[in-house]
Amino acid sequence: MAGKRVTVGDVMELVEKDTVFYDESGGGITFSGGEPFTQPIFLQTLLRLCKEKRIRTAVETCGFVNSATLLGSSPYVDLYLYDLKVIDDERHRKFTGVSNKAILENLRLLSHSHNQVIVRFPVIPGVNDYDGNISQLGEFVSSLGSVKEIDILPYHELGIEKYKRFGIKRKMPEVQPLSAERVSEIAEMLGSFGLSVKVGG
């Protein structure tokens, strides 16, 4: 394990150093992870302080969180980046170890209370790149009134060296990146549901 313990004050001190940059660029701070909602009080305190300082906020989440915690953060979040991987619950359990029922329900709830949600689709060959999942995903996301954009995040091998440095064995060493043609096909399929589709994000 690498890293160090920090306080809310420590983080805000770093965040506020870039206030001029946020003001000039129109940007802000993105809370990522891991899953930032695993430390809900810490995260919500930071989000509230950023809002008080008029610093724009984004949160990346897999959605596998307590609904009250997720929705409770809404007043302090300008943009949610919400990952969806697999719509079929059994397959989701197989590859992630948990059901996706709470994830899908949380996205439904969030879409009713917040109008800035971008769904992100991390595409992993052999896991969720098949046409059935893509169609189900497009149908589900398009049914959420306020969610209009989906970002495709194609699998890449940039993390291989990190695995080596930390002595972590790759769980799926046989996975290879998708071709540009297949990524384009996926984008076209999702776009057919009336969604704005981007590759990357």
Instruction: Determine the structural class based on helices, strands and strand pairing.
Output: alpha/beta
Domains counted in the coordinates: how many? Answer: 1
**Which oligomeric form is depicted?**
single chain
How do the strands of the widest beta sheet line up side by side?
A: 1-2-3-4-5-6
Estimate the helix proportion, in percent. 40-55%
Low-confidence stretches: none
**Continuous helix count:** 9
CATH class equals: Alpha Beta
**CATH-derived topology:** TIM Barrel
| Mean pLDDT across residues | 90
Distance between the termini: 28 Å
Spell out the CATH superfamily. Answer: Aldolase class I
CATH-level-2 architecture: Alpha-Beta Barrel
What overall form do the CA principal axes indicate?
globular
Report Rg. 18 Å
Order of helices and strands: HHEHEHEHHEHEHHE
For the sheet with most strands, the description reads: 6 strands, parallel
Strand % is 15-25%
Total E-strand runs: 6
Structure, explained:
- This protein is an alpha/beta fold and 201 residues long.
- It has a single domain, classed as Aldolase class I (TIM Barrel), CATH 3.20.20.
- It contains 9 helices and 6 strands.
- A 6-stranded parallel sheet has the order 1-2-3-4-5-6.
- Strand 4, helix 7 and strand 5 form a beta-alpha-beta unit.
- Helix 7 packs parallel to helix 9.
- It is globular, with a radius of gyration of 18 Å.
- The two termini are 28 Å apart.
